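Quick one, tokens below. Sequence please?
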């Protein structure tokens, strides 16, 4: 059986849901768990369509009937999607929102076969809300199906987890992410790098590919890789260049620099090239792996991590970067003089 239309990857979770539809053994509560930005919500919407589609000859939704189209537009009265306000520093789904939902469970669906309640980022339901939700999950109504979605399974109450059928979503493989990026109009070279950096999250890959984040990452890694013992001012200049980069952006750049040294260590350890993330600067990775031992590369990763830790506190960003860049700068040649300031 093929997957839901428009869903990238996820043959296994889609298969689980489709066979429960085929066997008419739909559970009253599902918990979709897996990395953010990989398409869990899209599957939840397809599942809600399947449950309410006017054409029930096929377990997959037709996508064109009045139920399917209104569910896709989030305009169907029986399919309710709630999510926290993600613009907040700490997004929360409040108890009032959960109470409103629960009230609906007592009514019959207005138009469709089943009411479907999708709670995205379910781990953000606050404690009171979780307890109210738990009560509802303990007394299932045959006409309502809950789909909880989370990227933080362990943050949900164990009692809630145990009331749901957990459907696990694996990170997307690179080929799937690249294909989806190509569909979104991203050029092949950018798609290749964004997919490698994304860790299997299509959402992250799209952000990387479209926000020009890749160019900045590439430039930073190449700048650091170009530090030479013969150029003692190099580390200081590089630190100066990023003295005013916003801390959030700098943390991203340092994240990508860690992956760069991780790749250097991998090449040094003889790993296959397919495992590299920094595919757009592979030559620099390979060149550096000839100069650094695996232990040295791992040591660099640790130092970058320490700098990131320090960056989250009150710190002089330029001084911190100077120290970091000096520690990453190679010292193997004859030039080992400390820099005079
Ligand atoms: Zn339909």
């Amino acid at each position: 059986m093929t997957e839901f239309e428009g869903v990238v990857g996820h043959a296994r979770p889609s298969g689980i849901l489709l066979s429960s539809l085929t066997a008419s053994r739909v559970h009253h509560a599902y918990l979709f768990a897996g990395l953010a930005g990989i398409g869990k919500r899209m599957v939840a919407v397809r599942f809600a369509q399947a449950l309410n589609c006017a054409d029930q000859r096929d377990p997959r939704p037709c996508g064109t009937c009045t139920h399917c189209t209104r569910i896709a537009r989030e305009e169907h009265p029986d399919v309710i999607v709630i999510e926290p306000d993600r613009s907040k520093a700490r997004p929360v789904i409040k108890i009032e929102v959960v109470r409103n939902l629960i009230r609906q469970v007592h009514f019959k669906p207005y138009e469709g076969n089943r009411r479907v309640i999708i709670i995205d980022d379910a781990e953000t339901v606050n404690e009171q809300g979780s307890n109210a939700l738990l009560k509802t999950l303990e007394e299932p109504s045959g006409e309502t199906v809950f789909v909880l979605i989370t990227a933080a399974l362990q943050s949900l109450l164990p009692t809630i987890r145990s009331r749901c059928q957990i459907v696990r979503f694996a990170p997307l493989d690179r080929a799937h992410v690249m294909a989806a990026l190509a569909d979104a109009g991203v050029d092949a070279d950018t798609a290749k790098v964004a997919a490698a950096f994304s860790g299997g999250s299509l959402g992250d890959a799209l952000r990387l590919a479209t926000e020009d984040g890749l160019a900045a990452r590439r430039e930073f890694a190449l700048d650091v890789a170009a530090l030479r013992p013969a150029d003692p001012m190099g580390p200081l200049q590089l630190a100066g260049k990023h003295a005013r980069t916003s801390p959030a952006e700098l943390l991203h750049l340092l994240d990508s620099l860690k992956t760069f040294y991780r790749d250097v260590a991998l090449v040094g350890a003889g790993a296959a090239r397919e495992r590299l993330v920094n595919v757009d600067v592979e030559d620099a990775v390979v060149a550096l792996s000839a100069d650094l031992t695996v232990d040295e590369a791992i040591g660099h990763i640790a130092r970058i991590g320490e700098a990131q830790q320090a960056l989250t506190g009150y710190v002089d960003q330029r001084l911190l970067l100077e120290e970091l860049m000096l520690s990453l700068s190679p010292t193997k040649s004859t030039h080992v003089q400390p820099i005079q300031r």
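The first strand starts at residue 29 and ends at 33. The domain at 11-170 is CATH 3.40.50.300 (Rossmann fold).
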